[in-house]
Amino acid sequence: MQQPNNHTRHIKNERLETIKPAYRGNKIVNGRFANGEELYNPNFRDVLRWQLSKNPQHDEKKQDNYTPPVQHGKAFVHDDKDMVVWLGHASFFIRLNGVTFLTDPVFYDLPLLKRKSGLPCAPEELRNVDFILLSHGHRDHLDKKSIQTVIGSNPQVKALAPLRAGDILRGINPHLPYQEAGWFQKYDLVPDAVEVYFLPASHWYRRGALDMNRVLWGSFLIKTPTLTLYFAGDSAFSTHYDDIEALFGPLDVCLMPVGAYKPAFLMSKSHMNPNEAVKAYNRLRGGMFIPMHYGTFDLSDEPASEPVRLLEQIASTGALQGLRIPAIGESVLLHEF
Question: Residue 277 and residue 310: Cα distance in Å, rounded?
């Protein structure tokens, strides 16, 4: 019997600087990215098991009508201060040293998934954006309509993306300038005022029926001479947080995912619960902890308010020193660093 052809290689953007010594690039097996060194394909029998089983928190979740508060207004768009503004889910408006970023912009309802929380202003009013940071290609992080809206209001915008995301971006707008990076690589499209690095995450990719793990996933670090800001993207807890701390720690601001973690048999290889997110933040020697990936879309079994309640409980024990839970649209100024 013919044996399967396990063709393995490592790839990176050869034009970019790789900051981890001796790092060969991201491992690919038969055209599919590994999750670090190991292949990870989500078991969709677990999805079926989830759909056919009863949520033990069903009644509690049904009665929980929590949505994040929204602070309306667009003054932050025209401000010149260093700041972070949460826009719901994993979308942030970030300004550092006069350079403005949008992370994983998703502003609308998605197929079979209604957005529960509002926005501080109309998406068209998000202007003066220099870069879109895209952590991975799942549709609740890379949304065609949202990106087209950003481009329409910001003709100067560029995208910083993972390896092999270019086909998706060209399908959204063939004229959008973009640069792809692998893990531990530094983008070179960015002005000297800031540095942007693409870093690991423990996750996976699928956007269509036949493209499992064909596009990379990851996290971002934005660095100025006085501040480091980490955007974790979607990730399970893993050893990559130790690698990031060894290269950059301690980190001043950590934007950490804390939702979509139940049931654990389905979610634990993709997302972190609040305790795991705090553990990762402490591994990073983080300063300010700003949670994300909760309250905007109903993706999992935990009640909507549970992530916030758990974070506040953890903070009350002293295990989470820098917790800041902003409203959507609230400007978190970073001048104190």
Answer: 11
Give 183-225 pLDDT, tens digit per residue: 999 999 989 899 999 999 999 999 988 899 999 999 999 999 9
Specify the 3-state DSSP secondary structure of 181. strand
Please write the tens of the pLDDT for every residue from 117-138: 999 999 999 999 999 999 999 9
Backbone angles phi, psi at 250, to 5 degrees: -75, 155
Q: What is the DSSP string of 108-173?
A: S-BTTB---S--SS-GGG--S--EEE-----TTTS-HHHHHHHHHH-TT-EEEEETT-HHHHHHH-
CATH fold group of domain 70-329 = Metallo-beta-lactamase; Chain A (3.60.15)
pTM: 0.95
Cα separation, 48 vs 207, in Å, equals 19
49, amino acid identity: R
CA atoms of 153 and 145, how far apart (whole Å): 13
What whole-number distance in Å separates Cα of residue 131 and Cα of residue 133?
6
